[in-house]
Amino acid sequence: MGFLAEQNLKMLGSTLAASFVLTISIFFIMQWLIDVGDVELDNTSIKIADVTMPERELELLMDMERPQEEEPPPETMPPEFDMTPPAEVDSSAARPNLGFKGKKAGVFADGSYVPIFQVPPVYPRRALERGIEGCVMLKFTVTKVGSTRDPSVEWAVPPGIFDRAAMRSALKYKYKPQIRDGEAIEVPNVRTVVIFKIEDANKPADYVPEGCD
Description:
- With 213 residues, the protein is an alpha+beta fold.
- It is built from three helices and eight strands, in the order αββαββαββββ.
- The chain has a domain of 105 residues: 2-Layer Sandwich (TolA/TonB C-terminal domain).
- The chain is 23% helix and 25% strand.
């Protein structure tokens, strides 16, 4: 009996010792696992810079200020000539020579109206065919802008032949307007003689049709 009791005590001691060692081992293993779980994570975050787009005002093309366009200068009308020779007239012997003979009233003073150009009239075909020459005394008004208006015939040689052609040409005359006190004014009763003559080599250079002196 005593032998059995001693064996039981040894087995119990061995069991207790093994249990103690196992407990200590489990404790250290748990402690190691806890230490590993306490590893600090890097909480450093990356900050993205805020990007702000600048505000831009859109300009419409319609709101853009356009440069002022300069007005083109008035076109100078070319002289009108009837260049078609009559069928029954020898063009080498009869050629229109249209002259202007303004009525002079002394030297132009400062600010007076000055003729810039005068458009020659169209020589009437019937007069050219018949070899008729002559002249027309015109009267008209020079406006503030240098144009002419209200032409009329004072007298004509011969009467009624060249009147219409002379008045049509007078409406195309251009003048430098008369200036008074810094402002342009109209000038009425301006007179000009329009001469219709046919060129001929036998005529002198200063030839003037009869009655147009």
